[in-house]
Amino acid sequence: MTISRRGVLLGAMGLPTSLALAATARPASAAQPAAGTDDHTTDDPATAYVDVSVATLWVSPGTDRPVDLPSTTNPADPAGWMAAMSLADRVWLVGELETQASYGQAVRILARSGDWVNVAVVGQPTPRNPLGYPGWMPAAQLTTGRGFAPLTGRPFATVIGDTAKLYHTPHRIEPFLELSFNTRLPVLSRTPDGVHVATPADGPKWLRREDVAVYDTVADIPRPTGGDLVATANRFVGVRYLWAGVSTYGFDCSGFTSTVYSAHGITIPRDAGPQHDAGVPVAREDLRAGDLIFFAHNNGMGSIHHVGMCAGDGDIIDAPTNTATVEGGVERVKLAEHRYIKEYAGAVRYL
C-alpha cells in the first residue's frame, strides 16, 4: 500500500487487456463494483483521450454521490456541479478525489472495474506512477480517439481565456462545448477570426481566434517571467476551491500552481510535496514573483500540505482549502498574514 498526497491508502493497480469505451452518455452510478472486481490487466497499457470538458478522477470507483452526477456523465457539467454543491458537499470530497484532466488530454489505461477505469493522466508528473497521475473515472468519459491520436503531433491551440466555447461551424453560432483555460487541441487550419481544431470523438470544430494561442510545439510557448506567472495567477482570484481541481471551475492548491505553470509551457509535478522537491530552493529573503512557497505540518518541519505562489510585494497567491465553516478559493494576501504562516516550510524556483 502507498499513501497519496491526501493521506489516502492506495492499493496496487493492474493493467487491462482491453477496454470497451462507452459511446453513449451515461452516469457513473454509486452502485459500481468495488475496486478489483471485474479487473482486467495487461503489461501494455493503452492510450485513451478525455471526451468531456473536464474529467474528475476518484480514489476509488463508484464512490460518487447523486450530487456528483454532473461530474460523471458525458457530457460533463463542471460549472453546474460546482454550483449544485454546498460547502459541506465540497468538504466531503477531500480524500475522495485524485485530480482532473481536460478535454482531449491523453490518459493511459491501467485497470477496469465495471463501468470505471483506472487511468494515469499524461502530462501530470507524480512519483506515484511514471505514466502520469493515477485515479478512477467513468469509462463513458473516454474515447479511443483513433482518428484523433494521429493529429496530436500537429500544432495546437491552447485556451487562454478563463473558458472558451467550441463551435460546430466557422460561423460560431451554435456552441458544442465549453472548455476550461489551458485546454489544448490539435489545429487543422486557421482563418483570420477562427481556429479549426480536431476533437477526440466528434470531428472538427471551431474556436474563436481571440480565445486561444496557437503553437507548433510546447517548446514554442514563450518562456515566462515571474511577473507573467503572477499575472496569470491573478486572473483566477475568487475561483472556488475544489479538492483535486485543475480547471477554472475549481482549483486545489497544487492544481492551481501546476496549471499556471503549464499554461506557460512549464511542466512541474502535480502535487505540492513533489513540487517542493523538484524545484531549486530559495531563501525567504530572496523570494521573487513566480516562486512557489510551501507549508508543512509540525510548524513547517513535517510533511508538505500546501503550496502557493509568490506574487511580489510581500504577497502570496494560493488556493486554501475549504473547511467546515469557511469557503476556500484562490486569494491574494500578505505572506506574513497567511493562515499557515507558522507552518512556512521554504520556497523553490523553476525559472
UniProtKB/TrEMBL annotation:
Keywords: Hydrolase, Protease, Signal, Thiol protease
Signal peptide (residue range): 1-22
GO molecular function: cysteine-type peptidase activity
PROSITE patterns, sorted: NLPC_P60, TAT
Residue span, NlpC/P60 domain: 223-351
GO biological process, alphabetically ordered: proteolysis
Record InterPro entries: NLP_P60_dom, Papain-like_cys_pep_sf, Peptidase_C40, SH3_YKFC_2nd, TAT_signal
UniProt record similarity statement: Belongs to the peptidase C40 family.
UniProt name for this protein: Peptidase P60
Lineage: Bacteria, Bacillati, Actinomycetota, Actinomycetes, Micromonosporales
